[in-house]
């Protein structure tokens, strides 16, 4: 479940949730609403993800912050880099 959905379902504000997990309300707001001007999605660190999972009784997990990138392959993967030659010049 997405964090935004959890907050809505439980009638919680970002500030309420932030207090429960020990972060600033602006952090929670960034996780819920990506920066519309850049499209950048912010994700909490592993220590905070553990707290989120615990506080939400496992309803919100690290996977919920990954979006579609887990299931949708990159249409333009980086080109493979050829290994350097191990020969030395004579």
Structure notes:
It is built from 4 helices and no strands. With 90 residues, it is an all-alpha fold. Helix 2 (14-21) packs across helix 3 (25-32). The longest helix is centred in the middle third of the chain and has 10 residues, at 46-55. The protein is globular and about 65 Å long.
What's the topology here?
Blueprint: H1 3-9, H2 14-21, H3 25-32, H4 46-55
Helix pairs in contact: 2-3
Q: How would you summarize what this structure contains?
A:
The chain has 90 residues and is mainly α. It has helices at 3-9, 14-21, 25-32, 46-55.
Shape: globular
Q: Which series of helices and strands comes N to C?
A: HHHH
Percent range for β-strand residues: under 5%
Measure the end-to-end span. 61 Å
**Tally of separate helices:** 4
- The whole-number mean of residue pLDDT values reads 80
**Would you report the number of β strands?**
0
What Rg, in angstroms, do the CA atoms define? Answer: 19 Å
Percentage of helical residues?
25-40%
Which parts are unreliable, with pLDDT below 50 for 5 consecutive residues or more?
70-74
Structure class:
mainly alpha
Described by its quaternary structure, the protein is single chain
User: What characterizes the major β-sheet?
Assistant: none
